Amino acid sequence: MVALHDINKQKPLLDIKQLNIEGFDGEKWSSIVKNMDMKLMRGEVLGLIGESGAGKSTLGLAAMGYTQTGCRIASGSIHFDGLSLTDAPEQSVIELRGSRISYVAQSAAASFNPAHKLIDQFAEGPVQHGIMSYTEAVEKAIDLFRRLDLPDPENIGFRYPHQVSGGQLQRAMVAMAMATDPDIIIFDEPTTALDVTTQIEVLVAIKDVIKELNTAAIYITHDLAVVAQLADRIMVLRHGNLIEAGDARQMLDNPKEDYTRRLLAVRSLGEEKIRNEKDPNVILDINGVSAGYQKGVNIVQDINLRVKRRKTVAVVGESGSGKTTVARIVTGLLPARGGQISFSGERLSPDLASRDRECLRRLQMIYQMPDVALNPRQKIKTIIGRPLSFYFGMKGKEVTARVKELLGMVELPESYIDRYPAELSGGEKQRICIARALAANPDLIICDEVTSALDQLVAEGILNLLQRLQNELGISYLFITHDLATVKAIADEIVVMYKGRIVEQGLKSEILKPPHHDYTQLLLSSVPEMDPDWLDNLLEERAAA
Amino acid sequence: MFTLIQQAPLSAKIGMVIILLNLLTILLAPQMAPYGETELVGDVWAPMSSEHMLGTDQLGRDMLTRVVYGARNTISIALTIVFLSFVVGCSCGLLAATMGGWVDQTIGRLVDIIMAFPTLIFALMVLSVMGTSIPTLIGVIAILDSTRVFRVSRAVAMDIEVMDFVEVARLRGEGLWWIMRNEILPNALPPLIAEFGLRFCFVFLFISSLSFLGLGIQPPTADWGSMVRENAGAISFGIYSPMYPAAAIAILTIGVNLVVDWMLNRSSLLRT
Question: Can you tell me which residues the record assigns to a coiled coil (chain B) (predicted)?
Fold first, then answer.
């Protein structure tokens, strides 16, 4: 591919020069993308990476000559195959979108219309642009579904979006983007919402198809390891500025800028840590527990696990493996059907309503989405202060003083006390959730995917904070996640779950060392690595096996 | 508060002025009206003149006086009804959403039964059995309306009830009342405020239509709905008198909705 675009080097397919994009925040226009230059050759894959708010998606959309509502292109030029998208009449730009340039959104589940069959949604674009008839579109769809390795390509299109899995839906979306044989496809975090094993399916499909049809692509992601598999060239963005651009392999081997180095370093975050080995008694003991939502159907079967004081137990597995159900059983939201749970020696009643306040206090939970875990109508003072007055009967100044102390513990300024959650960033919100859990002085905190909605650097900060708090306060964590990099960073013990059962459990060093259980092996090998050849090598290995 | 009103868009300001004028009219009706509420002062359906700025009605009472007193009766009754229906509807709705299970089922089915009857027929039935006094009128319409409020508040609360922060409160061991009042209600307010504005207008029109049928506010008490009815015959003679109370209804309805729209816009911005 590199050789191919070298031939046409003189004439880029997409040429963006000195582009400035501004967004309106209700009062004034502020800059989102600053003086950006970008070139994309025919058949080349360009990776755009950076944390959220870096302007990646805005830049990606600008490549179609489009801005979201409330944004505008302030200055600069965008040329696509000789046509200036900023000057051309709106109608001719609309003609391009969805025919010669197409777009794949992050969440296919949210982007498909649940009321129409996949094939009808597939055909809509090409028919609308008058490129092909409905029957031709159906043929094209079947061909693309086959290329993208979807099961039963002849019939899968006639299903509704809810009838196929998340990974299949994402591939169907890629197929939709390729319907008109576009020159450029813009992928906006197409695998972020998927778990590692599904992510591979989609990555392989994307990689094969764009290589085969020699399509140029812009691949937007915050995950360097993913972009390493696909991109020929990488651009690193931050706060709307270009930090570094260059050949993918070169950048991964030898990053020039400090920020890029930090992004690379996150993946290898503190794999070993100093531990206080005192206090090894068991805080949570789950014995032979099963539970489910419907009568007679158990989502999780025969769960046995132990959490020791000052230790972190990570529960790992793909989505649907029953990880969160385990958390709901421990908290009492889903009463266990059989088995026993004991919490620091005492038997824990399976039902939330019959637990006393002291027991509730010692068992706290932190959620995946800080946005919905904080009441948007309460100030930080109320959010953190409520457990204080509820469990300890604190009042007035006492509460304020303690809330400030707690804010200090999670490394946030005291001035946040009068803010609303909407006035904080995602990482800050998650810190507030941690402070709220800490306010109850708990013995055990259940962390349900606490970092998966956050950017890598922010997530790293949260993990470090959790570790520091554990060392200082001696809290235990039951850490639920699908991200093995997080597990490597924080866990003492690992429990691997698959289809509602525990398939393997033990100390971190044992689980991460071969020989593995088959499913653990699959999980471990599915985590993208920085090596650009990783995906190809992995596929060869799997094919050989 | 003052800066808040200053920042409001023009439409909301117009709405506020309309509501303010109506409130003033309610408070100062005896001072503002040139004649007595039921006083016969001139010819039947006299045209506009310097003595009767809006002419007279079908019995020769001053139209302006009647419209001014009508504001007092109609609006105060409508407000009482809406408040009542919101207190009943919201508490039932939030309770049903938070408790779920048989509580939700019982209240829900009860509401279905009431809603199965066309409201006007239901009101006519009850009013003709119980007799038309103002307390009965208020009670009947409030209960009929609270079923709609129940539906809306339950639906909104159901959406909020599944949020993690409600689960956090449950796990903390908070009681039902605290969860309803502090976690759910503040987040359910925007749609409920909108509903309040709409309900107010509907109640208003509903009283008017009941009065029009002769089962609402009884003569000789002035009320906009019955004034339209009593003077309806004048239309065929090209006389404007029924238009004035009708215009009063329309203007207040628009005013309330302008303000509600603005409040809705503001609160939905805060949510993001």
Answer: none
Which pTM does this prediction carry? 0.69
Token couple for A49: 């990476």
pLDDT on residue B259: 87
**Do A456 and A328 sit in the same domain of this protein?**
yes
Residues A319, A173 share a domain: no
> Within a domain: residue A23?
yes
What is the model's pLDDT at position A73?
85
Judgement on whether residues A302 and A251 belong to the same structural domain of the protein = no
Of A233, A265, A297, the one marking the end of a domain is A265
Q: Look-up: residue for tokens 């508060």?
A: B1
Choose among A373, A391, A422: nearest Cβ to B272: A422
pLDDT average, residue stretch A231-235? 87
- Which of A77-81, A434-438, B160-164 reaches the highest mean pLDDT? A434-438
Does one domain contain both A313 and A250? no
Residue pLDDT, tens place only, A345-397? 788 888 888 888 888 898 899 988 888 889 988 899 999 999 999 998 888 88
In contact, A118 and A171? CB cutoff 8 Å? no
Cβ proximity of A46 and A210 under 8 Å: no
β-partners of residue B61 are B40
**Which chain B residues have a beta carbon less than 8 Å from that of A373?**
163-165, 168
Residue bearing the bigger pLDDT, A185 or B225: A185
Mutate to test the interface with B, among A27, A363, A375 (most CBs of B within 10 A): A375
Q: What is the ipTM of this complex?
A: 0.73
Q: How far apart are the first and last CA of chain B?
A: 22
Based on the fold, state whether residues A260 and A159 are members of the same structural domain.
yes
Q: What is the CATH number of the domain that holds A14?
A: 3.40.50.300
Average pLDDT on B42-63 reads 80
| Interstrand relation of A14-24 and A312-316 (parallel, antiparallel or unpaired) | unpaired
**Number of domains observed in the structure of chain A:** 2
A421 and A313 part of one domain: yes
Whether residue B164 and residue A352 make contact (CB cut-off 8 A), yes or no, is no
- Shared domain for A298 and A243, answered yes or no, is no
Residue B269 pLDDT > 90: no
Q: Which residues of B touch A (CB under 8 A)?
A: 163-165, 167-168, 170-174, 182-183, 186-187, 269-272
Alpha-carbon distance of B78 to B81, in angstroms, equals: 5
Phi-psi region of A181 (alpha: psi -120 to 50; beta: other; left: phi over 0): left
Is residue A247 located within the same domain as residue A298?
Answer: no
| Contact between A366 and A345 (Cβ < 8 Å) | no
Separation between Cα atoms, residue A102 and residue B58, nearest integer Å: 71
Supply the range of the domain harboring residue A102: 2-265
Alpha-carbon distance values, A138 to A32, A118, A158, B44 (Å): 40, 10, 10, 76
Q: State yes or no: pLDDT of A216 exceeds 80.
A: yes
CATH number of the domain to which B189 belongs = 1.10.3720.10
